[in-house]
Write a structure and sequence with these properties.
By secondary structure, this protein is an alpha/beta fold. It is built from six helices and eleven strands. Helix 3 packs across helix 4. It starts with a strand and ends with a strand.
Length: 217
């Protein structure tokens, strides 16, 4: 039976794709991925640099809105397109940035695919917060220190907080962090050509791109 794969391509650096991810990409018949301006997006670009063979494969460039409105219909449409390829005997690899289990649309699609009777396999990717930690040479947690991961909001917390998708709210987040007596570090576009690293709280700008992450200590 044909297989549906969810592949985490990591945060941006093609060299961070796992050996297993590349192995699956080399044998998949169809590459499915989020689109950008109607063309294969960032996840595809990263995967292609690590595995040039996918340039010869059929690509399903799937459109997902950035807002919640229309997302359910987009997931349904993506699942239907993928299921059609699976019915025709093709193995389909769906690419996601980072890891498939963190703020990814993969499971919304995978649930529909498995309900349709097709098996799915998940290939983990390096999560962006781990890559950011490595880039800063800053441990996320040591000993018994707790960790909180949130999408774009700050919470008073006795431990390390990782704030993902922080770019549009940096001014507000910086004010909250400073008022709470904490400090923070920022990496924008980790692993991509336009990567920016801010190793002190004072350097952090008031705005940054979508792929921006704060580590609060």
């Amino acid at each position: 039976m044909s297989m549906f794969y969810g592949i985490g391509v990591g945060p941006g650096d093609p060299e961070l794709l796992t050996l297993k991810a590349i192995k699956i990409l080399e044998k998949a018949d169809v590459i499915a991925c989020p689109s950008k301006d109607g063309k294969p997006g960032t996840a595809y670009d990263i995967a292609k640099k690590a595995c040039p063979k996918i340039g010869d494969r059929e690509v399903l460039a799937l459109d997902f809105p950035m807002k919640k409105e229309g997302l359910e219909e987009a997931h349904k449409s993506a699942a239907e397109q993928i299921a059609e390829k699976l019915k025709n005997g093709c193995d389909v690899a769906f690419l996601t940035l980072g890891d498939t289990s963190f703020y990814s649309g993969f499971y919304y699609i995978a649930d529909r695919i498995t309900e349709a009777g097709f098996p799915a396999e998940i290939i983990s990717g390096i999560p962006s917060f781990c890559a950011v930690s490595a880039k800063l040479a800053l441990p996320i947690a040591l000993g018994d220190e707790p960790v909180l991961i949130s999408p774009g909001e700050y919470r008073s917390f006795d431990g390390t907080q990782v704030i993902m998708k922080a770019g549009s709210r940096l001014r507000e987040l910086k004010e909250q962090i400073a008022a709470d007596g904490k400090t923070a570090y920022l990496v924008e576009n980790c692993g991509l050509p336009d990567e920016r690293v801010y190793k002190s709280f004072e350097e952090i700008p008031d705005t940054a791109g979508y792929f921006s992450m704060l580590i609060v200590k």
